[in-house]
């Protein structure tokens, strides 16, 4: 039996090595590979979305390095941000590795690290307060508390289901994401608000943020409800999405602690380079620091 299993695996390897064209079956096999490799649901969806774009671009043509380079150029010409292009290329290269087509892998775009971000991208604390006020005026208590929970803990929106009654009572949630387990602390004021909300909603155990049917509230629902606050809060809609709350947490934490390694652990980042992206200051903040140097006399 052992030899039979090993033989079947070898046949699969040979088939993958000889794969010259992308097919729907190939993509299905790649998806199963990602799942068996214990990638998170969101990661699998992201990789598959990216490789399907490349599949559409290939239009039945043979997989070659030239085709991969042409696709890379198309992404650049389409106006995607450098970070987005490199992210899509990473998914495509992962597919090539799976197919043993290492000869087709392409290099990421070179890109100088940004030292400050655009004012129209990052959410300010004042805007965050206005969003909370808008949610309160609309009597959307659940959304108000979701926004405070993400911004007050730094968790991902996909990690909200780890915020349970039990976690609120102990003041900490054990979060498992991307193969890593970390403890997210819940400060006293947030703990109080979560337990009060749960009691009001007659939730005695399990998930706190649920729909009327008791199901976990989805990312798309949170996104849509947050966008609905923009007009009343006078905040640019392009700034308002759950992940920007995580960025605000990161920038606020770093401004106080100046400890990027600790912040990386809190956010669940494997690399400090990822954390650096979260704490980039705005152009105005950067300009003020330069002016404070008083080198122009």
Summarize the structure.
The chain is mainly alpha-helical and 297 residues long.
Give an overview of the whole structure.
With 297 residues, the protein is mainly α. The protein is 59% helix and 5% strand. It contains 15 helices and four strands. It has a two-stranded parallel ribbon. It has a two-stranded antiparallel ribbon with strand order 2-3. Helix 3 crosses helix 5 and helix 13 (260-267) crosses helix 14. The chain starts with a helix and ends in a 5-residue tail after the last helix. The relative contact order is 0.09. The model is unreliable at 1-18 (pLDDT under 50).
General form: globular
Strand residue percentage: 5-15%
Give the N-terminus to C-terminus distance in angstroms: 82 Å
Give the helix/strand class: mainly alpha
pLDDT < 50 stretches: 1-18
How would you spell out the order of helices and strands? Answer: HHHHHEHHHEEHHHHHHEH
**Spatial strand arrangement across the major sheet:** 1-4
The overall pLDDT average reads: 88
Question: Helix proportion of residues, in percent?
Answer: 55-70%
Descriptive terms for the model:
297 residues, disordered N terminus, mainly alpha, two-stranded antiparallel sheet, two-stranded parallel sheet
